[in-house]
C-alpha cells in the first residue's frame, strides 16, 4: 500500500473520500482537508471523516481552487518542520529581558 498524502477539495471529493474510507479504513490518515466549501454537505463529510480544513473561505468555485489556496500553507509547514533551526541548533539559551539591560524598557502593563 502506498502512503501518499492527498489534499481533499470540495463537496464531490468529500463524498468520494467517504466512500474511499469505507473501502479502505484508515486511508483518511493520509488526507488533508484543504478547505471547507460553502456547501453544507462538504462540512458534513469532513466531520464524518474527522478532518479539519486548513482554511474556510466559503469557496464554491470548484476546479481545485481550495487546494490551490491550501498547498502553500502545507509547503510552509513542511519547511518549518524540516528546514528551520531550533534554539539548540544555534546555541541560543537563556532569556533576554529589560533586567539584563537588553531589549525594550517597559512592562507588559504599558503595552
UniProtKB/TrEMBL annotation:
<protein>
    <submittedName>
        <fullName>Nicotinate-nucleotide--dimethylbenzimidazole phosphoribosyltransferase</fullName>
    </submittedName>
</protein>
<dbReference type="Pfam" id="PF02277">
    <property type="entry name" value="DBI_PRT"/>
</dbReference>
<keyword id="KW-0808">Transferase</keyword>
<dbReference type="GO" id="GO:0008939">
    <property type="term" value="F:nicotinate-nucleotide-dimethylbenzimidazole phosphoribosyltransferase activity"/>
</dbReference>
<dbReference type="InterPro" id="IPR036087">
    <property type="entry name" value="Nict_dMeBzImd_PRibTrfase_sf"/>
</dbReference>
<dbReference type="InterPro" id="IPR003200">
    <property type="entry name" value="Nict_dMeBzImd_PRibTrfase"/>
</dbReference>
<keyword id="KW-0328">Glycosyltransferase</keyword>
Amino acid at each position: 500500500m502506498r502512503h501518499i498524502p492527498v489534499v481533499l477539495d470540495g463537496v464531490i471529493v468529500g463524498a468520494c473520500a467517504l466512500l474511499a474510507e469505507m473501502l479502505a479504513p484508515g486511508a483518511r490518515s493520509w488526507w488533508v482537508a484543504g478547505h471547507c466549501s460553502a456547501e453544507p454537505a462538504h462540512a458534513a463529510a469532513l466531520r464524518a471523516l474527522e478532518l479539519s480544513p486548513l482554511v474556510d473561505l466559503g469557496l464554491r468555485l470548484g476546479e481545485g481552487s481550495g487546494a490551490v489556496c491550501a498547498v502553500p500553507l502545507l509547503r510552509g509547514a513542511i519547511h518549518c518542520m524540516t528546514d528551520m533551526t531550533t534554539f539548540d541548533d544555534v546555541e541560543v539559551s537563556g532569556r533576554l529581558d529589560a533586567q539584563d539591560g537588553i531589549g525594550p524598557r517597559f512592562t507588559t502593563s504599558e503595552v
